[in-house]
Write a structure and sequence with these properties.
This protein has seven helices and nine strands; from the N terminus they run E-H-H-E-H-E-H-E-E-E-H-E-H-E-H-E. It is 38% helix and 15% strand. A five-stranded parallel beta sheet has the order 2-8-7-3-4. It has a two-stranded antiparallel ribbon with strand order 1-9. Strands 5-6 form a two-stranded antiparallel sheet. It is of the alpha/beta class and 178 residues long. The N and C termini lie close together (10 Å). Strand 5 and strand 6 form a beta hairpin. The chain has a single domain, classed as Rhodanese-like domain (Oxidized Rhodanese, domain 1, 3-Layer(aba) Sandwich), CATH 3.40.250.10.
């Protein structure tokens, strides 16, 4: 049995709690409406993009399902969000597009009792692959697919490191390391 380390936001970190409340509109409906409006203004080919804290609040409130589209290796060695669904957008060390992605996604979503009209938020390393996956799913008839801005690790900072500039981990949101 492998040991896991779990990283959770510190409930006593009042600065972090205040930052989360400041970045999150009061309701999930407002978050999604704002994301849709921005997506229309930016001519995005999917429902929209949302911040990691907004995505976490939607998932915690039962308003969205989180699907991680990174490779199995990324999840294993970098970490992942607890209870997230995994459907790889690309596979293998050469990162070839998964030709079964849409079908695998559909099967996993249906297995949760969801359908093509359910709200789903997609997560990858930096938000780029999940945006491409969101476009493919939207083109396949899914209507409420949102990308999580900056992904799990965020952008590369001045020291050429990820995990510090945007992304799930930099917001101190829950994640597990195997």
């Amino acid at each position: 049995m492998s040991e896991s380390t779990q990283f959770l936001p510190d409930s006593t970190d009042h600065h972090n709690q205040h930052a989360l409340s400041q970045s999150t509109p009061s309701t999930g409906e407002q978050v999604l409406a704002n994301a849709r409006l921005l997506a229309q203004q930016q001519d995005l080919p999917f429902a929209g993009s949302i911040s990691p804290p907004d995505a976490w609040h939607l998932v915690q409130d039962g308003q969205a399902t989180l699907v991680d589209v990174r490779t199995a290796e990324e999840r294993k060695f970098v970490g992942y969000v607890p209870d997230s669904i995994h459907v790889a957008w690309v596979t293998g060390i050469s990162l070839n597009r998964n030709p079964r992605f849409v079908k695998e996604f559909e099967n996993k979503v249906k297995g949760l009792g969801k359908d093509m009209n359910s709200v789903v938020v997609l997560l990858c390393r930096s938000g780029k692959r999940s945006a491409a996956a969101a476009e493919a799913l939207t083109n396949s008839g899914f209507t409420h697919i949102f990308n999580i801005d900056s992904g799990f690790e965020g952008e590369i900072n001045a020291d050429n490191q990820r995990g510090f500039l945007g992304g799930w981990r930099s917001h101190s949101l829950p994640w597990i390391q195997d």
